[in-house]
Amino acid sequence: MSRIIGPLARLATLALLLALILKPDWFVPVLKPxxxxxAPVIYNQGSLLSLTLYHLGLVAIASLIGTxxxxxxxxxxxxxxxxxxxxxSRSLVNIGQTFPPVAVLALAVPVVGFGLKPTLIALxxxxxxxxxxxxxxxxxxxxxxxxxxxxxxxxxxxxxLFRVELPLALPVILAGIRLSVVINMGTATIGSTxxxxxxxxxxxxxxxxxxxxxxxxxxIIVALLAVLIYDALSILERRVARRTGRLxxxxx
Amino acid sequence: MIELEHxxxxxxxxxxxxxxxxxxxxxxxxxxxxxxxxxxxxxxRMINRLIEPSAGTIRIDGKDTASVSGEVLRRGxxxxxxxxxxxxxxxxxxxxxxxxxxLGWDSSRIAKRVDELLTLFSMKPEEFAQKFxxxxxxxxQQRVGVARALAAEPGLLLMDEPFxxxxxxxxxxxxxxxxxxxQRLGITVVLVTHxxxxxxxxxxxxxxxxxxxLLQYAPPAEILARPAHGFVEKLVNGVDRxxxxxxLAPVSSIVEPGTAEGPPIAATATLRDALSELLWHQRDxxxxxxxxxxxxxxxxxxxxxxxxxAAA
Amino acid sequence: MTEASETAAQPLTxxxxxxxxxxxxxxxxxxxxxxxxxxxxxxxxxxxxxxLAQSLPTLWAAIGIALLSIATIVAVLRTGALLRLAVxxGSLLLLAVLIGIVPATVxxxxxxxxxxxPAAGFWLMAFAFAVLTTDAIAKLQLGPLARLPMLAGAxxxxxxxxxxGHWDGLSILKEYATNAQKFWREGAKHIELALGSLAAAVxxxxxxxxxxxxxxxxxxxxxxxLNVIQTVPSMAMYGLxxxxxxxxxxxxxxxASLGIRGIGTAPALIALFLYSLxxxxxxxxxGLGEVRRSVVEAAEGMGMTKxxxLFQVELPLALPVILTGIRIVxxxxxxxxxxxxxxxxGGFGTFVFQGIGQAATDLVLLGAVPTIALAFTAAILxxxxxxxxxxxxx
Lengths: 252, 312, 394
Fold this sequence. Notes:
The complex is a heterotrimer. Helix content of chain A is 79%, strand content 0%. Chain A is mostly helical. Chain A has one domain (48-251): Orthogonal Bundle (MetI-like fold), CATH 1.10.3720.10. The longest helix of chain A has 40 residues, at 212-251. Chain A starts with a helix and ends with a helix. By secondary structure, chain B is an alpha/beta fold. Chain B folds into two domains: 2-243, Rossmann fold, CATH 3.40.50; 249-311, CBS-domain, CATH 3.10.580.10. Helix content of chain B is 39%, strand content 24%. Chain B is globular and about 65 Å long. The mean pLDDT of chain B is 88. Chain C has two domains: 3-141, Butyryl-CoA Dehydrogenase, subunit A, domain 3; 176-390, MetI-like (MetI-like fold, Orthogonal Bundle). Helices cover 78% and strands 3% of the residues of chain C. Chain C has helices at residues 3-9, 18-33, 52-55, 58-76, 81-106, 120-140, 144-164, 171-214, 216-231, 234-251, 253-257, 265-290, 293-301, 306-340, 349-358, 361-390, and strands at 37-40, 48-50, 115-118. Chain C has a three-stranded antiparallel β-sheet with strand order 2-1-3. Chain C starts with a helix and ends with a helix. Classes of the chains: A mainly alpha, B alpha/beta, C mainly alpha. The interface between A and C is large, with 46 and 50 residues.
């Protein structure tokens, strides 16, 4: 039964999201009661579509940069050259994750000023922590005998990394990326408080003018977007995990 | 005395135990043996009602087990499982004290009992009482598991593959310990295993189960000599039947008058030991000595052959 | 080969500590290329950077530069972890003392508008020596319990410096001085919201987790729903909470009289509670699931009732995993409360967003620094609690 419900729910959520972004006027009757004194019902300070795209673009760029940095660092500290940094990097990741994302954002403002820059910095810095952590975990969890077998068959260290270790660690790394993207979706929303463009603007505009209708539009779009992305990444992760599971069987 | 009468257990439309009846004498060891899925564990668990029978009655000392609550029943029956199931967050002493505490014994009585049991299993109380299970070796953990089951002085001990997780040497030691403790305390033991060798070694009687049915219930010698047609026969045939038969009887049972050359064999040794010695020293007969060292006669290859052959 | 000849044969690079090199590079950049402090004519105007030598009296500057240079050298060389720990902590204390001397040095006593704050050079050096300290702690493999006295030491040191008035000239404390009453009120509110939502999540989530452990159907419904809730970005969640509570307050005078309104504490508390449920429930399920089958069966086989089994065996054994969930919740909530300020929920976030609104960095810091300190303290305390609860486990 869940096999039918899952895709159906996904499709319905996506349809609702697209409607909210592309045809906001359809929702006037529903949202009307949440406005007072003839205030506008539908967000009118910019196109919802462009804000959504901007929001997604920001998260995508930050996540890409974060992933690249985290992967390089994760691989480095798990090699012999970087082994000295391993205990330190584990501690720093732990400490870094106790920092609230909004604090990272707020502290970036005095350094680089308002706008896109502090948001991007906060997104990259905070977003790379879960990926870095999971890259280390994933690489450390690759069974020693599999690496040994790869070495025994004459793979050089680079081949071992790209053909054996990274593919086997991929599901764990992907879980880190999923977590990172979800956190970034939220932090990017807060970024609107430091004047970064994004969907947070809609919510903030609603809060500033006590227009509940704006808050609802912004809140629902951001929420649906986050849930759908999380869901899509989870599906990807399961696929990859299933495949490496099979690979592991063959190797074992 | 435990009596099972037409006991069955159904899981969904699967009949796990099918109309099983047997009774266990007080103060004996009964081993239920079978492959996985034979219903042996289910049968054992119905005795302490961890699993309720779908049909039939089970009586312990004449009293229907269904007449008391499951918890009260279980507090009066010792229970040992594979991998010992010790509570990792409690000390050895507190583990052993589990059932006495549930029964509301006073603390001085509990402490005394814990000391007694640790001593019985040759573990110094002052050394072991305050240790945690993960600080013990596998063999020690197993002994604490049995001690815990015996804490409230139950007359009946149920054991579900108790030695399954142990390596061969510790396993043999644990089996000897069990035999010694059972003899000393005179308790009734029902033990489940998939290992026929273990069953023959430990059991006064063996119940062979397959597919939920009881195929044969008899003393080990009879199981070896006259296995029921089919599954039991296959189970027994595959292994060194004559050697097993020989290992069940002491040398004193076939000692004959006369003397022989060579190192003497103890009268209490098994016939299997005697055969081994005879082959090793390349002799047809060896002298037999009693416990105080006096020679009481001899044991011959011919007599051994007759014993093992008579069975076949 | 003897040890002595081995040491002699080592190339120079082998006697250098790689982490130490990174620490040194950051510290040197901070000391020589970045300003140590910023002097602003008033609260809002951007200011002028001062180097270490410019911001301190000559003697102090000399002492500072000498000691920090020595510390940098110790960091670079391969030295014992204990020495590195001492040097790291010592350097951090030195920086704390030095920065406190700056205001009296660069601001005339009659000028009450000028503001002095730590600048990039100070922060870089502080970061470098914090890394050195962290690395030493990691190398010493100090467990969570051993970190407790260090936390207490740090708290006492900060309290002493604050109490002595040594930092009073710094801009963040000037911000504090004008907001002192509000600071403690919002602080109390912050903790109240974080702990209150946690308590509610434990009271509801623990029984729910136990029920989910026993019932696969319930588990199959509950966990995905909580997962979706957890995914909703916090600002959206706070926004969405406004609607039902606003309606409730409009319809029910009782709810309104209880202080339940669309904005304020109530929606913040409910949003935080919803976020907290997943870690509590999921970790309760995971913790109970990790209890070995044989242990549960042994408990049952010895005649424990369901309740005895749950409270004497299953929950104590699941405790470390449940506590891990509580740690996640508490650290997460302390951060999320900050955002609640946007909907009038109060807490340190009030200062952060006010500061962002006024472009007043010091006000942002007044909100952000205690939030980070709270989250950090909560993490260390709960790590210690987790370690304590794990001690007796296999």
